[in-house]
Automatic annotation (TrEMBL):
This is Uncharacterized protein. Residues 7-96 form the E3 UFM1-protein ligase 1-like domain. It comes from the Eukaryota. GO terms for cellular component: endoplasmic reticulum membrane. GO terms for biological process: protein K69-linked ufmylation; regulation of proteasomal ubiquitin-dependent protein catabolic process; response to endoplasmic reticulum stress. Residues 102-193 form the E3 UFM1-protein ligase-like C-terminal domain. PANTHER family: E3 UFM1-PROTEIN LIGASE 1 (PTHR31057:SF0). GO terms for molecular function: UFM1 ligase activity.
Amino acid sequence: MAENETNLAENLQRHLIRSLCTDMCDAIIRELDSSANAKTGQLSIEERNKIIQKMSEPNRSQLSKVNESLNGKNVDTTLTRLEDACSELLQLILKRPNKKSEKDLILEIREKLKSKLTDEQDPAMILHLTVTLLFYVVQDGRFIHAPGKSVPTLIKFLSKNLPTNINQRLHEMQEFVIHQSAAGASAQLSNEKIEFIKKLGLSAKEKMSFASFGSETNEAS
């Protein structure tokens, strides 16, 4: 695996741990200690530690293990500790989906992302959603949970599996997003080019053909 791909994998794991896994930990804490419900949103490290240390055993030791793993970068370790905590403290069994359930879940996620993309007007988010959907296409039906700052690296990662014209459009959109962030309204990109990126994401499916997008690019150039 190339160095940039290794860094991408590590960054994605860290993001997953600090977002969804942390939310799961907070949900367990709130279930066991109602005082945590006074704070909306994600608990801070200090708030989480303070609540956990006031708990009795085995709650304190189990949740301390989970909390410790939230500072790491190994998703499997964090998930295992979350599963153990749910089982021992809440008597809930967290089961990873079987192949059929996983496929149904992935299709549901795909349609939700497309629905969000349909109504999206922000170019940065349009690019983010489209890149996420293209990852699904290139990686045979797998999804990622990625932060916006990883989009340029993801575009580079996807480039070897996409036609040249698609890569050019993605890089052009990325440059526009960067310039728009720096220069505000003075940065311009035609609606046709933005809609092309949106249509690309909305067309995402397994074994997707990019042939029609090649003809659209030629007509637009």
